[in-house]
Amino acid sequence: MRFEGTDSYVATPDLMLAVNAAITLQRPLLIKGEPGTGKTMLAEEVAGALGVPLLQWHIKSTTKAQQGLYEYDAVSRLRDSQLGDEKVKDISNYIVKGVLWQAFEQGKPSVILIDEVDKADIEFPNDLLRELDRMEFHVYETRQTVRAAVRPIVIITSNNEKELPDAFLRRCFFHYIKFPDKDTMGRIVDVHFPNLKKDLLREAMEVFFELREIPGMKKKPSTSELIDWLKLLVAEDIPPEALRSKDKKTVVPPLAGALLKNEQDVHLFERLVFMAKHNR
Amino acid sequence: MLIDFFLHLKAKKLPVSTREFLTLLEAIKERVAGHSIDDFYFLARTCLVKDETHYDKFDQAFGEYFKGVTQVPGLEADIPEEWLKMMMKKHLTPEEKAKLEKLGWDKLMEEFKKRLAEQKERHAGGSKWIGTGGSSPFGHGGYHPEGIRIGGESAGNRTAIKVWENREYRNLDDTVELGTRNIKIALRRLRRFAREGAEDELDMDGTIAGTARNAGWLDIKMRPERHNKVKVLLFLDIGGSMDDHIKVCEELFSAAKSEFKHLEYFYFHNCIYDYVWKDNRRRHGERFPLWDVMHKYGEDYKVVVVGDATMSPYEILQPGGSVEYSNEEAGAVWLQRMLDTWPRAVWLNPEPERLWDYRHSIDIIRTIFGTRMYPLTLAGLERAMRELNK
Asked: What's this model's pTM, rounded to 2 decimal places?
């Protein structure tokens, strides 16, 4: 199995190599990068390209490692017992399978996405060490051991809000998706808008990268914002000339709201435009 | 042979472990990557480096190491012919291939080796090397004469050597850049959750245990929700020599403001004396006596002072040393008093750490603070937050 990128996802050679290393050596792959660079999408695309099922586990600040394995639904059991239900005698009726369990019992390759692992408690990754290493765990309630017949491909994303423990990092491959340069960005846009007019794209990209260069910007626009903006430009049928006005920054680009998501940024930008107009 | 490489990385202070090294060897054995040094660079990085802040260090170490290796004379000549043939086949169009067949492999190889020998240093753009449309027998591929790459178009101008020589990840090195988001992450270290206050969350484990004890009768237990309980007092030096550092202080301030629920901030000038203020425009009208501040905020507050500590030593050590008014007690006395009230305190200094030794006033304040002075960089913030968390 090799991942070579897909029709709808542009993967740089280094990213492909990292994914393939993870697939071949069957280790988890940890992905970091600026928001909006397609970290979560990677797992979907890998699953799609390899034609295997994708199991997603989105992490929140309250998520516990145990929930990925299984949960013992004590409340239902309690209720059933008070109602005198027959089901209550078998504890396995109240074991709810988690994402990892579901993946382990597939019996064929699958992709597990552990999304935003840094959101969880600091101990969360440590609690999964053995499970991800050996791909097996023990269910105490029913005294059975669940083992993966075929090791799934594990893709983990992080937004860098917490540092991950060293022991966890040592077991993973790591890749940092850096912000695409102009060429790669051109290919990404091509994938999303195959029929976009060349000149519109060129103008739009220039505006976009200029915006990213403005110092003091609180939230720089990212790939997904560029895509949204282009969508709007196409929908509104804005001609490339409207973006041009080559005497630098004298005009606010149309529909800039799709790119600037922070009122302070909009304000900063408008002030710059104003100053440029008055040549100060 | 890669053991040297591994030890080299280790010597360059990259946190690499034996386990990761073995993974790299395994990956090479499994032929995950191709045979070019670009592939090896990416593979080694993905195996050995687990934090983008180390990318820059890795790039430098990698460049250094492989420059050494590629400088070994005669290395280029060792490239096996079979491999060259394969690479060229892969990257040439059928027409070119046909043309090449006519020339014959042997002749071509000779030509190729001759060029290798000619080329002494790295050369990125000469037409002789990156020929287009047949001016060079090596087709449209770029070529790094360090015996590295006979690349196809996919490499473009983004070959790995460019990556590591440009040091594209320099910005992520945590000794340099400070952005609001980065600061937030650093400050987040300080966030601590504790349970306190009203009971408003179902305590599942407690309920189950309680119910079991009641022989099955439901006994619901509640517990308080978790809150961000860290309290921070921020003192900011303003004006004078601090003007150079306004931006970075602003970033720190805005990041801290959104990160902590209990944050109080005060301004001071150069050193802290009897008074601090909250609004810099009305600094003379609206002043807060430091005694009041000390009484109001208990010792559970953590104190962060931001200032360049650059002033005349008299301003710290002498009564009446303040540049603004005649203070009865010396700055040093007030600083000590602060530290007695709030034992958890750090001083963040936007001046680069290497300059500290040359400024007497910095040295004095650092001594008063018991060396808990940190540079206002990400790494410095991390250290400061770790100190506050102890």
From this structure: 0.59
